[in-house]
């Protein structure tokens, strides 16, 4: 009886050099190396350190002009008080710490390009090479929108909120606000609007990476509005709804701008032939 030979299923020999290669490196088609968890922590520490240095430099510069910046922020508050009204402080260090806080927030605005640059440099190792080219647009857009949000809060939202509180003054009640709570209200609104105005920047880069698109944003518009209202209610400090409405309105407009940016610059789907 003839024997039927079995097919030779012996695997082909693997070159010895392949055993020395990292399997993850074989999958890395972008030429970038992998970072361990400790490497990420070290990178995060370095970026935070650089951001703090930039903030300190901005703080020192701002402190040289503290009197002008103080008048720019606090004069409008005092001007909206009832005739004869003034801001007061009751603790020995309260006025001094107010100047420090004002210099810090002014320094943050000055250092915002450097801070956003450090944020980009921390995220950049996880991006593809063609995505890393968006570093300058990211830094410029983030800085401009942060300053725009801060300006909108200073010139529009905070005066409306402040007038709402001042309006309760009558012949029985006299509004004599302390400087610390007044500036805390100002600072909270300023930072909130600075962050809220980052929406177009965030959506633009998510769209460039293919995470979201204009159709997705339009489809979920009603849910986005609900989230905006809830977020505004949590972030805004007054219970009267003045700053809530003042924040929700711009957020809806920014969402509309985000849809346009996602449509113009979003990742296009390629149609197979």
State the major sheet. Answer: none
Radius of gyration: 27 Å
* DSSP strand tally: 0
Mean pLDDT: 80
Q: Name the poorly predicted regions.
A: 14-32
Shape: globular
Name the beta content range: under 5%
Structural class: mainly alpha
**Which range best describes the helical content: under 10%, 10-25%, 25-40%, 40-55%, 55-70% or over 70%?**
55-70%
The helix-strand sequence is HHHHHHHHHHHH
Number of helices: 12
- State the end-to-end CA separation: 55 Å
Q: What labels describe this entry?
A:
mainly alpha; 273 residues; globular; 0% strand
Structure overview:
- The chain is mostly helical and 273 residues long.
- The chain is 70% helix and 0% strand.
- The protein contains twelve helices and no strands.
- The chain has helices spanning 16-19, 23-27, 37-64, 66-79, 94-123, 129-132, 135-166, 179-196, 199-208, 214-219, 221-235, 242-265.
- The longest helix is centred in the middle third of the chain and has 32 residues, at 135-166.
- The N and C termini lie far apart (55 Å).
- Mean pLDDT is 80; it is low at 14-32.
Question: Which helices and strands, and how do they pair?
Answer:
Layout: H1 16-19, H2 23-27, H3 37-64, H4 66-79, H5 94-123, H6 129-132, H7 135-166, H8 179-196, H9 199-208, H10 214-219, H11 221-235, H12 242-265
Helix pairs in contact: 3-5, 5-7, 5-8, 7-8, 7-12, 9-12, 11-12
